[in-house]
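Help!! Second protein's tokens look totally different from the first
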Amino acid sequence: MTERILSAAQACLAWARRCSPPVAVDADALVFLLSAHRDAGASDPGDWTVADVRDIARTVRGWDRTPDTLRDTWLAWCDHLVAADGLTSRESPRRLRSAIAAVGLVPDGPAEATADGIALPLLNRLDAGDGGFGPLPPVVPAAAEELDAAARACPPLAEAAGLAAWVGGGRPLDTGAEHDALTGHDTAEAAAALGIRPEGVRRGFDAALAAGLLRRTYTRVLPGHTVLEGGGAGTAADAWADALLSMARAPAATVLLSLMDLFVAGEPRPAARIVDTYGGGAVAAGGPGTADQVGAALEDLATLGAVAPHGGGAFRITPLGDHFAVRRLRQWGAEVALTPPLERMEAEHALTVAEKGRRVDAEGLLARWTAVRGAAPAAQELLEAAADPGDWHRRRLAVSALGGVEGDLEPVLGMYAHHPVLGGWVRRLRGTDTGADTSHQAVWALLDGYAILLDAGRPLPGGDGERYAGRAGDLVRTVSLTGHPAAEEVLDRLAGGALGPRVAAAARQV
């Protein structure tokens, strides 16, 4: 038994003894419930949801006999959490207690039907064929201040915050309603005070609860533990992410599947492409819905700040949308790799993201990184990080980024002008490349360019045949002596006539 479970159990037993009359709690049953809850992946003894109730009930139904005290102890635990403000999830206390009271605990009894239509297509989208999450793309997180500002600019979240302020110290729940809600009288008063329709109050109430701006007991709604203004860095963004499904007008399945597809793809996509990714189908069949349904959901998500239009009917995920996806996936137990922020990102990492990262992360990353780093330090770090002989893609990216840098790079570039791997690229940056230069440095840079073409399955540029025709022998001799990883394949292409007959004849003699 862990110290946390022991402490939680002792607190519940002490609460039960203080009740009038005292509440009967079976200590062994309580420890089992808390241990099973932890083993199911819960990070906190107070983090309970209806799904947790169903999971533990499935375990209990496999026993030969169920203790008579189990359900009463479970209900007492729920009552204790609500009374002590210890329910850390955003689950409705009434809904949680009803689930505990109704869930089947009879050994080998019928299992409850579950509605996990989202799970399978989402896991498949994340390449989780064995039941575990597959490798996810590295994500470049936006600064917490940037995310918070975007979250506060979301109109429904601002309305939810306004409703939370109106609730003040607390209001009664409508005990006759099927779901937690303000009373009809309070709903009308809130709508008048906030200048919104009663339907907006109900939507704002759900969003405020999900964001942690409000919390509930069995009979009242009270101020939550989250504030949008004055909280720590990232608080507003976390509240927005937690409330997104409540703020969105589309079904949760459509929102989740659409956002996760844009997150994993990391590039703009139209609604029809998202539907095709999951094999089509309606929400009830495990898909995100039709293209029209997904398109409408994306339009709505754009007003919430989760996605942004990209032209041609396509949408791309925003940094705030990324924040939602990362937060949700981590809550589900997935490991999502985040890069360090730009100010702490090394050149090696920046080049890796620019080369292999998602498009939404790679675009403009090196320009932003060099601006944060400073011209001269950025130049030296990028060149050093691209100096491995096989890193021709990185060299192209580094030189492209440095070509757009404003600042005096000459002191740094001069240090690498004769570098065996970087020298030719540096000469291009300095504007001292002499066209048909067949020096080692110039030919190495030429081979880098050819290697990039070969990796892409493209032919060598025929125009180079005319440029090097008069120095064909010098060119192929230098190619053969460079030690470049792609030299042998390039020589084969040259001998086959990729740059014309004069270069081919010279290559055949090497």
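Here's the second one for comparison:
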Amino acid sequence: MVDTLNYDIKAWAFSNDAEFPHQDWDLFITDISTAPLLLSLSIIPEVAKHKRKVFLACLYLLVGDAVGIVKDRTHLEEVRLFVAQASSNRNYYIQQWVSRSFQLIQNPELFDYKKFCVMGLISFLSGKIRLSFIAVMFC
């Protein structure tokens, strides 16, 4: 399943399609098993900028979900290890994500779903993808 999902994610990343393949696709693709691909696609210049933002939003969702929704210590530790591995990435936006993620992991009582997940996710306006990272927690 993961290989097929990774293929679908890559296909959309490099396609001309602006809309998701199906409703809640961003939620469907956000998983620890797809996180390395989401990370790489969020910084590859060949991926359209608006799609890179989608993949970055998925990374925020991954952490927010692990801290505030799932509340499974094993899953949270997997996510924390992934964030730690990503900390060596020099991309500015990834560094912000890493910093904000560690702050949230270390202070889970600060979790606010609307600020960390919803406001960092995608909304469709006039068929175009728009992100609201301004309201993401720890800006």
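Reply: Different proteins will give different token patterns, so don't panic. The first strand starts at residue 122 and ends at 125.
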